[in-house]
Structure formats: structure tokens, C-alpha cells
User: Fold this.
Amino acid sequence: MRHLHVDVVVIGGGPVGENVADRAVQGGLETVIVEQDLVGGECSYWACMPSKALLRPGQALRAAQAVPGAAEAVTGTLNVPEVLRRRDAFAHNWSDTGQVRWLQGAGIGLVRGRGRISGEREVTVTADGEAVVISARHAIAIATGSIASMPDIPGLSAARPWTSREATSTHSIPASLAIIGGGVIATEIATAYSSLGADVTIIARGNLLESLEPFVGDRVAESLRSSGVRVQTGTGTIRLDRTADGVVIETTRGTVTAAEVLIATGRAPATHDLGLETVGLSPGHWLATDDTLRVPGYDWLYAVGDVNGRALLTHQGKYQARAAGDVIAARAKGLLISDTAWGTHVATADHVAVPQVVFTDPEIAAVGLTADQARAAGMEIRVLDYNLGFVAGASLSRDDYNGTARMIVDTKHNVVVGATFVGPDVAELLHAATTAIVAQVPIDRLWHVVPAYPTISEIWLRLLEQYGRPAARSVASREEMTHA
Ligand SMILES: Cc1cc2nc3c(=O)[nH]c(=O)nc-3n(C[C@H](O)[C@H](O)[C@H](O)COP(=O)(O)OP(=O)(O)OC[C@H]3O[C@@H](n4cnc5c(N)ncnc54)[C@H](O)[C@@H]3O)c2cc1C
Ligand SMILES: NC(=O)c1ccc[n+]([C@@H]2O[C@H](COP(=O)([O-])OP(=O)(O)OC[C@H]3O[C@@H](n4cnc5c(N)ncnc54)[C@H](O)[C@@H]3O)[C@@H](O)[C@H]2O)c1
Assistant:
């Protein structure tokens, strides 16, 4: 049995593990990643990249079809083999050679195999019957991500359901697809597969996209229905059977038959079979952390990315990873720790401003609190809504532009605390909203942030006009005003 001694061991070489390791190495620590599968993790091969590659061609086609003059030039449908070929390229043909080269260049070690914690500051890695024991002088960071959560529905495993892995890596589009779940994966995969010619049915126990503003799910349901997707909301699943005709799904509203069924009912933490019990932690749960991403009660153990359940998004996990890698290095060297809110070593934004784009048609971009969440937090708010189609940049971009913007203002502190945009090409509006929330830019100063004409960003001006100019609203403090 081999025995290695390093400063830091990172279990899981997804986007988050890679970033923890990179920051720790840049902080001067000898670091290895333990990876059981492909370096790059879920995001690169079975999640963000391949799913967005499947979505983009349909989005580009719809955009051209909505502009008279260009619409006449596009008369065909999507070329499915070409879409899948491009998707394969974005998933690097499921080879991690490039990512491994990046690790080598960054000075990060790699041990392939399944890692399990085998004691304090110790990980045992097994691969092909061989074991390597790695002792960490300073820290172990768990970045093992999440896996599809499978609901307890009779007949489920015998029906051989798809998870997002099969849906994002398939090499042929089934004639029909039933999707159980109404969240982000369900709506994105429904959008992609319907544009690729599959007959899609969504079976959702509630409404669609329930964690977002209520009008979001309504708009996506309406749009999916108009493109031929059957959207069955408020529908429970009773049992599944795989038959010669495909998968037969008995629901509370009747029977659905489809060639394949995708389960998209959320994620579970990848904390089973990780040896957590050897150090007194329970397997199978999200690993709670403090804001430096350290597991309370363990000065050597960190949990970063999906596995801590704080925000299941690549960009937010990588944000945590930068803080975690830096704080591990700072603690190892006995340096001062910057762990007050918004410090270098904490992931404060997880609680305040987590941006998310859902790449459906229409696109959804949201950050911060919804109106209901703000009220539940006891804030005094104003909810500003505006029809995005009235903005010149939006109507120029396509004739059928239909969209909504909502901004939530904390009226006590005069700052934006939430924003939601629904409509074509709204993704790029999101970073401005995230900046306004994180930087707590006073509304009165936002009036000086001038959006270019004619861009969709003029929505900011329209929302501000609804809120009111500072002088017109009230002159709260006379010293703000000077006399000419
Ligand atoms: C279909 C889908 C689409 C998504 N689209 C987006 C998107 O567009 N934008 C976005 O921001 N987020 C998206 N996400 C979420 C995103 O994929 C995750 O937030 C992100 O992958 C989390 O990164 P991670 O490094 O924490 O975990 P992962 O990417 O899951 O990586 C964990 C790694 O740990 C390894 N591992 C696990 N256990 C062990 C062990 N015991 N030993 C060794 N290695 C181990 C795994 O093999 C894996 O490589 C999507 C998710 C899904 C499912
Ligand atoms: N564009 C993106 O950023 C993107 C894309 C895909 C996935 N993701 C990430 O992946 C995560 C997982 O996505 P998801 O769609 O699986 O989760 P989700 O939390 O968005 O949606 C889960 C859905 O499953 C339903 N559900 C839960 N348990 C159920 C049960 N027992 N029976 C029937 N329905 C049930 C819920 O009501 C909900 O509609 C998301 O939280 C998101 O952060 C992000």
C-alpha cells in the first residue's frame, strides 16, 4: 500500500474541487485531487456544458425565425446529428485529457480512484483493487458534488429511467420523452428535446420552477405548451412500468406512455460511501459549513460546492472554492483570516445574491430575493414590474418579443434586493442586477448608471422611472440637495 503526505487533499475533481486546489497551490500548499471518474466533474460532461449545447441551436433558430427578413432565410428544422456532434465537442467527447493537462500546468497532483475518509486528515483511495493512503498536513476538502435524487415511486428502477446524465449524453433523440419533475432540469431538457423533435410530456407535482417568482413558471409552461409540450402540473406519479410500447406512467390524471422517462426531481449530496462515519459524521446528508466552508467542529475539514447544499450552481461553487482554497492556505501559514461578511475568506454572497439563468424559451435570469422571500424576511419592499417588450432594444431584437422584468426594492434602505427577468436574451442582464445587490448601490445612484440606447438594458431605466426620481419622490435629507 502506497502512503503519500501532502498539505491538502481535495476529494472530487469537478469545477469546485479544481478551484479549491488551484487556490491552495497558489497559496503555496502541496495539493492533490482525488477523482473517481473524469476530471472536470458533472458540469463539463453531463450537466452545464452538454445541456446548454443541446439548447443553443433551438434558441438560435427561434431568434432568426422571429425577425422578418431573416426568417425567410431559415426554412428547415434543426439538423439533429449536427447538434449532437457539436454537443459531443463541448463535452470533449467525454475525455478529460485537457483538464488533466490543466491540473499538471497548475501544479496540482492527481490520484485517480474513489476516495474515502479513513480517519482524521486521512483519505484512502481505491482503484483497481489497489489502495493509496494520503495524509493531509493541513486540510481535506470534500467537493464530491451531488447525484440525481430518485423518488420512491413503485416500478421506478425496473422502468430503467433516465437521469440528467442520459438526457445530456444521449446519441439519439427518442421519439417521445416523459419528464417527472418541474424544476430547472425538467424545463431545460423539455425545451431542448422538443426543439430536437421529441414528443415531450412534463409531469410536475406542483407548478413549474416554483422556487422563482410565480409568473416565471406560468410563462415557461405557456411557451412549452405552445411548442407542443404537454405540461401536466399538479400531477402526481403513481407507478411506472416498462412495456414493449415504452414506459407507461400512471399519474393522478391518467396514463402517459413514452419511449423514455427522465427523473428530474432534485439532487442528493454525494456523501454516501465517503467514510464520513470514521470521523463521526453521518453519510448521506448535505455537509453543513460555516461561511469559510469549514465543517463546524472539524478544524481540518471543508465541504465546498454542491455537496454543502448552499447553492447547486457551478459559478457559486467556484466562488466558494476561491474562498476555501485561500482560507486553507491562510490558516496553514497562520495568517490573518478575513472572515467578516464580504471578506476574502467567506462566501457571503451565498446568502444574498445567487444568480441563476434557466436556459428555457423564454430565458429566465434571477438573483436575490423573490417578493415573497423578501416579505417573509420582514423587509418593507416595493415590487416593480415592467413589460420588457416595451423596451426599444428588446422590440428591435425580435418582433414577437414578450418578456417581464421584476425588481424588488428594500424601501427602508433604498437598495435592490432581488431581480427577475423573463424573455429572450435576458441572461446578460443578470450581472448588472447581481452587482447592484451585492454592492448595495443606492437607488439614487443607479439613476446615474446610464444604459446604452437601444439595448435591452434600458429596462433598468424603465424600472427606475416606476420607482421615481429622488427629488420627485421625497427630499428625505435636505443636505442631499444644493441650491443653484
Ligand atoms: C443537467 C444539469 C445541468 C446543469 N446546468 C447548470 C448550468 O447551466 N449552470 C450552472 O451553474 N450549474 C448547472 N448545473 C449544476 C452544476 O452541474 C453543479 O452545480 C456543479 O457541477 C457542481 O460542481 P461540484 O464540483 O461541486 O460537483 P461535481 O461537478 O458533481 O463534481 C464532483 C466530482 O467528484 C467526484 N467524486 C464524487 N465522489 C468521489 C469520491 N468518493 N472519490 C473521488 N471522486 C469523487 C465525481 O466523480 C465528480 O467528478 C447543472 C446540473 C445538472 C445536473
Ligand atoms: N441552468 C442552470 O443553472 C441549471 C440547469 C440545470 C440544473 N441546475 C441545478 O441542478 C439542480 C437540480 O435540478 P432539478 O431540476 O433536479 O431540481 P429542482 O429543485 O429545480 O426541481 C426539482 C423538481 O422536482 C419536483 N420533485 C421533488 N421531489 C419529487 C417527488 N418525490 N416526486 C415528484 N416530483 C418531485 C419538485 O417539485 C421540482 O419541480 C438545480 O437546483 C439547479 O441548481 C442548474
About this structure: Residues 314-332 form the longest helix (19 residues). The longest strand covers residues 130-142. Confidence is low (pLDDT under 50) at residues 480-484. The domain at 2-46+91-147+268-349 is CATH 3.50.50.60 (FAD/NAD(P)-binding domain).
